[in-house]
Amino acid sequence: MRPFLALPVTLLVAACAQEPTPPPETTLPFFGDGYRFSGDACRRIGEDAYTNQFLDDAADFVGCPETTENLGVFVTDTGAIEVARRDGYVLYSVPTR
Questions:
Q1: In this structure, how many other beta carbons lie within 10 angstroms of the beta carbon of residue 5?
Q2: Cα gap 45→51, rounded to integer Å
Q3: Mean of the per-residue pLDDT values for the chain?
Q4: Closest Cα to residue 97, out of 71, 64, 59, 55?
Q5: 78 and 63 in contact (C-beta within 8 Å)?
Q6: For position 23, what pLDDT does the model report?
Q7: What are phi and psi of 95, to 5 degrees?
Q8: Cα 4 to Cα 91: distance, rounded to the nearest angstrom
Q9: How far from chain centre, in Å, is Cα 43?
C-alpha cells in the first residue's frame, strides 16, 4: 500500500517546482536551439561587431544566461573558458574536440 502514498507526494512536489526564468533580452546574435541539447539555455553565438573579438576557429562561442543553474557543470563538461559578460549572459569560448 505504500507505493500508492508516494504518488500523491511526488505529484505535489512536482507541482511546486519553480518554472525556469526566461533568458534576458539581448542583441547578441544567437543561433540554433541549444548548445548541448535541444532546449539548452546555453546557445551558440554568431558574429557581429562586438562578438568578433572572441571568435576562434578552434572553439565555439557560447552564451548562457547568468541565472542558469549549474554553470560550473557546463564549464566542467565542455572545458569552457569565460571570456566576457553582456546583457545578463556569461560568454564562453568552448574548445572544439
A1: 9
A2: 8
A3: 85
A4: 59
A5: no
A6: 65
A7: -60, 135
A8: 46
A9: 6
Cβ of 91: how many Cβ atoms within 10 Å? 21
Q: Tell me: the pLDDT tens digits for 43-76? A: 999 999 999 999 999 999 999 999 999 999 999 9
Beta strand segments in 1-97, E: 30-31, 43-45, 59-65, 81-86, 89-95
Hey, what's the cell of 35? Answer: 548548445
Q: What is the pTM of this model?
A: 0.75
Measured distance CA(59)–CA(80) in Å, rounded: 9
Residue with cell 576562434: 56
d(CA 12, CA 35): 32
Ramachandran sector of residue 79 (left: φ over 0; alpha: ψ -120 to 50; beta: rest): left
Instruction: For the chain, give the DSSP string.
Output: -HHHHHHHHHHHHHHHPPPPPPPPP--S-EESS-SSSTT-S-EEE---TTGGGT-BTTEEEEEEETT-TTHHHHHHHHT-EEEEEETTEEEEEEE--
